[in-house]
Each structure stands twice: as C-alpha cells, then as structure tokens.
C-alpha cells in the first residue's frame, strides 16, 4: 500500500504479516542467536536495506557490542564495540531515542567502526538506529543501513524498527544474560586453570590494588579484537601492557610487531608501516614488506601515536577502518587481519583543539582506553620492583647484590618518580655499580634523591608553610617506621589517634603506601 503523505510504502502502518511472522518466530525460538540473525536477514529484505545489526549493552564492562548482524563478517562484527555516548549507537543508548543519519559519508557522528561499504556508489546510504527497551531499561539497539537516492522522510522505517525492537526486546535481554554468563564462566575457567588465582601477566611486576585493577582490565579486553589505546606517563611500562594483551589473546602465537612512531623519520614512516614496491621512489631498489603485513593475523603496537604526522594519520585511518593497506607504488589492495594497540603519553584531546591531531583518527583508536598509573600512585610496589631489578641486574652483570637498606628504601618510597619505573630501574642499576659491600645504602643513591627537593621538605616560604612541611615529613617518617600503623605512629609522636587521623587527612597522606613493607629491607 502506498502512503499518500510520503508516496511510498508505509511499512509499520500497513504490513502486519511480517510483524506476525516475527512474533511467531521469536516466541517459538530454540536458538536465540540463530533466529535473531535470520530475523535481521528478513528485515533487510523487507525494508530493502543492505545491513542490519543488534547491539547489546554489556553491564559488566559498560560497553556496547554487536550481538547479531546481517551482511557483516565476523571480523567486521568484532570491531563494533562502543562506549556509552560514543558514535550514533552510543548516543542512542545514552538518550534512549532513535537517530537517523541520512548520509553516513557526511556525518561526523557516524564512526563506521565495522567498516561497511556502500554497495551502490551512485546512491546515498542512511543509518537508522532505535533503542531496544524492556521494562524501562535499555538493553541494546536495532539498526539498518539503507541505500537511497534522496529520501526525505524515514519515519515509516523508524516506526517499523521501533515495533520490531519491542517484539524482540525480551529475546535480546535473554541473549545479553547468556553472553554475560558465558563471559563469567570463561573468566572462572581462567581462574581455575591458574589454581584459583586472579589473572596476572607474566611480564609485569606489581601487587598493589591499582595494578590488580589493571590486570583485570587486560584480562577483559585481551580476548576481543577491539582497538586499544594505552595512556600514561613516560616510563610506566605501556609496551609491557601491550605485550600482555597480545599474550593473553587468541593471537598469542602470531607476530607481535612494535613500532615506535617517534623514532621513524617522517619520510620513511609510510614505507615502514605499509611497505613499498621496487622503484616506487629513489632508493627503492627492492620491494619492502611493511609492519602491518608483518603483523598479519597478529598484533601491531604503535607506540608514541601522538607523534604521527597528520598525513600518516589519514592513511592509518583507512587501515584501521577498512583493514586494508596499499604499498607505496603498488596498484592493488592488501587485506590485513591485525589487532591494533596504540600508546601515548601526550594529551591528544588538547592536540585536537590545536589541530595537531585528527579528531576522526582519535575516535578510531580510542575504542578501549587503558590508563596505566604513574609509579607514585602505586609506590607500595616499589619494594617488589626493587627486588626484581636487583635479581635481573645480578643475572645480567654477574653481580651479587643482596639487598637494599631500610633508609635507602624510605628515600625511594618518598621520591616523586617523574620518570616512573624506567627511572627506578636506572637508579637501582647506578646504585648497584656504586655499592662496595653488596648492599644498596642511601649514600649510593643519586644526589637528587638525597635532597629536600625529592621529599618536598625544602625550607622556604612562610614560617607556617615550613612548619607544615616539617610536620608532614615527621608524620611520613613515623608511618614508614611503623609500617603504616596509625595507632603506633600516634604513640611514637606523642599525640592521640584522633589527632593523627586529622593530620593524615589534612596532608592527604595515603596510609596504604606505607603498609606491608618487607622487614628484609631494613
């Protein structure tokens, strides 16, 4: 039936047969996943759409992912992971209202993480997305990609999708519960295989609560194919995090290719990443395979991504979006299956404002951000890191350094570590060279750690400021001595436990930093 208002089919208002068939299928469903996939195929045929998909909200990880789709490969579906509010799908989840994008090639909200392509280049492609809601709770979204010449009004399709969403809402909710249960069983299986212990990467040292939280994040993202960006200061171990993700993934037996973007000359970056053909430029005497081809079926780690020139960001955008590259001087496209992990210590958001970093490229790489804490944020890991570095350097250099004194350890615990773990390793290496009795003493440490600057006790400013610094330092020294015990520290200082608690709060002293220090270090 032709609608007089829009002069074309008015699906939701006229064709009840399709909706009845959907209702019958899902009410007798024995295989939710299979039936939802078949339903999406029939939906595309009925609405003359090219692609359709159902996303669900993973409540455990606060992310949105594709649960079922028609027209997408498994690899394309794996890319469809969104944060709440990210892209069109994330915005639909956030506002719980339908959104229509009439031309996906000319709208910044449409991220196209799956990399779908227009099948007819002479037509526009629209994206219609509606929320799936059951009992006032949004469980996911239903969407289609539909080619058109210049359709003005998509309200019939939106209305129809809303009705379909209502019909399948319960099934989608059950499907979400199934996925969450499967994920919980998978994690429990990993715990049982590791003797009931929590997941911990073999290449990372640290037992603090912050590091254990980080291990949990690595465990969650590793089995996926999502693009990861690792944020954190220089020297925190971002490369080790990337390697841990690769080693905990299904790609662990495949290549792990590292690229330091800041170390490559600008005129060679494109060749190094994508390769080149013989004779493509002066000096290209042979063909060269790029890092992306080397990493095929594995993982590529792009470190210092913030240092990439804008011209290369454009080319990388296609590689990430389409999973295709072209060698310099080549005339054919190469398909790649690569997990992409990036890292930076720069403020990309500020760089975008200054037009130094592409916003569209930022959203492509910022699918799953991981923040690595600075060493000063988990300084309780310093003793175990010191033990690790001493053992490592003893083995490398044939030394026999046995321990570090309590005084030296206290100084290391109070230092701010602007260079993080890399700086700590350098300090330990220097101290091991200077020791004459196989014990690291405070006088073996660099001078910067032995001054008031390192412990924020320089006597300058007003009398009140100086007194406060002295008071704070006395409290810290006593906490170190008493291994973080507030009651014993208060007795040592001759004050009540209540006053001690007030002073700890006043100076924002983190008590946990001084607990569980090894007695062997004293």
Structure description:
The chain has 522 residues and is of the alpha/beta class. The chain folds into three domains: 174 residues, 2-Layer Sandwich (Beta-Lactamase), CATH 3.30.450; 165 residues, 3-Layer(aba) Sandwich (Rossmann fold); 143 residues, Orthogonal Bundle (Helicase, Ruva Protein, domain 3), CATH 1.10.8. It has 20 helices and 17 strands. The strands form five sheets. Strands 3-2-1-6-5-4 form a six-stranded antiparallel sheet. Strands 8-11-14-7-15 form a five-stranded parallel sheet. A two-stranded antiparallel sheet has the order 9-10. The radius of gyration is 29 Å and the shape is globular. The protein starts with 10 loop residues before the first helix and ends in a 16-residue tail after the last helix.
List the helices and strands and how they pair.
Elements: H1 11-14, H2 16-27, H3 32-47, E1 51-58, E2 63-70, H4 74-79, E3 81-83, H5 87-95, E4 99-101, E5 124-134, E6 137-148, H6 155-193, H7 209-221, E7 228-231, H8 238-247, E8 256-260, H9 266-274, E9 275-276, E10 288-289, H10 291-294, E11 299-303, H11 310-322, E12 324-325, E13 334-335, E14 339-344, H12 348-353, H13 359-365, E15 368-371, H14 382-397, E16 403-404, H15 406-414, H16 420-434, E17 439-440, H17 452-455, H18 463-481, H19 486-493, H20 497-506
Parallel strand pairs: 7-14, 7-15, 8-11, 11-14, 16-17
Antiparallel strand pairs: 1-2, 1-6, 2-3, 4-5, 5-6, 9-10, 12-13
Helix pairs in contact: 2-3, 2-6, 3-6, 11-13, 14-16, 18-19, 19-20
């Amino acid at each position: 039936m032709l609608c007089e208002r829009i002069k074309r089919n008015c699906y939701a208002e006229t064709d009840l047969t399709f909706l009845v068939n959907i209702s019958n299928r899902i009410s007798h469903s024995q295989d939710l996943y299979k039936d939802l996939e078949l339903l999406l195929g029939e939906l595309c045929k009925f609405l003359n759409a090219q692609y359709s998909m159902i996303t669900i909200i993973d409540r455990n990880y606060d992310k949105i992912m594709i649960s079922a789709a028609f027209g997408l490969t498994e690899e394309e579906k794996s890319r469809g992971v969104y944060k709440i509010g990210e892209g069109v799908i994330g915005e639909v989840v956030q506002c719980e209202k339908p959104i229509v994008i009439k031309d996906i090639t000319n709208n910044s909200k449409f991220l196209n993480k799956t990399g779908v392509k227009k099948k007819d280049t002479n037509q526009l492609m629209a994206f219609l997305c509606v929320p799936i809601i059951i009992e006032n709770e949004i469980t996911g979204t239903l969407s289609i990609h539909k080619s058109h010449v210049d359709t003005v009004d998509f309200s019939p399709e939106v209305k129809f999708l809303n009705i379909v969403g209502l019909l399948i809402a319960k099934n989608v909710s059950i499907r979400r519960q199934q996925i969450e249960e499967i994920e919980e069983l998978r994690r429990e299986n990993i715990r049982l295989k590791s003797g009931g212990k929590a997941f911990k990467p073999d290449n990372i040292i640290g037992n603090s609560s912050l590091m254990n939280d980080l291990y949990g994040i690595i465990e969650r993202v590793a089995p996926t194919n999502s693009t990861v960006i690792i944020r954190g200061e220089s020297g925190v171990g971002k490369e080790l995090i990337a390697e841990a993700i690769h080693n905990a993934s299904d790609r662990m037996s495949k290549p792990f290719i590292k690229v330091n973007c800041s170390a490559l000359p600008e005129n060679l970056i494109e060749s190094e990443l994508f390769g080149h053909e013989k004779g493509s430029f002066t000096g290209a005497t042979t063909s060269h395979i790029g890092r992306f081809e080397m990493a095929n079926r594995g993982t590529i780690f792009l470190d210092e991504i913030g240092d990439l020139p804008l011209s290369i960001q454009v080319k990388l955008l296609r590689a990430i979006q389409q999973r295709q590259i072209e060698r310099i001087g080549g005339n054919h496209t190469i398909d790649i299956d690569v997990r992409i992990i990036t890292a930076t210590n720069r403020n990309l958001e500020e760089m975008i404002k200054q037009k130094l970093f592409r916003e569209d490229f930022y959203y492509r790489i910022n699918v799953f951000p991981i923040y690595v804490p600075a060493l000063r944020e988990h300084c309780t890991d310093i003793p175990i890191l010191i033990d690790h570095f001493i053992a490592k350097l003893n083995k490398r250099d044939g030394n026999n350094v046995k321990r570090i004194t309590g005084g030296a350890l206290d100084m290391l615990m109070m230092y701010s570590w602007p260079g993080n773990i890399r700086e700590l390793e350098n300090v330990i290496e220097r101290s091991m060279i200077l020791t004459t009795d196989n014990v690291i003493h405070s006088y073996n440490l660099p001078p910067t750690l032995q001054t008031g600057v390192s412990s924020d006790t320089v006597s300058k400013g007003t009398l009140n400021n100086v007194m406060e610094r002295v008071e704070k330092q006395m409290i810290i020294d006593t906490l170190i001595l008493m291994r973080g015990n507030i009651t014993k520290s208060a007795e040592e200082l001759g004050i009540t436990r209540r006053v001690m608690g007030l002073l700890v709060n006043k100076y924002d002293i983190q008590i946990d930093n001084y607990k569980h220090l090894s007695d062997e270090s004293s």
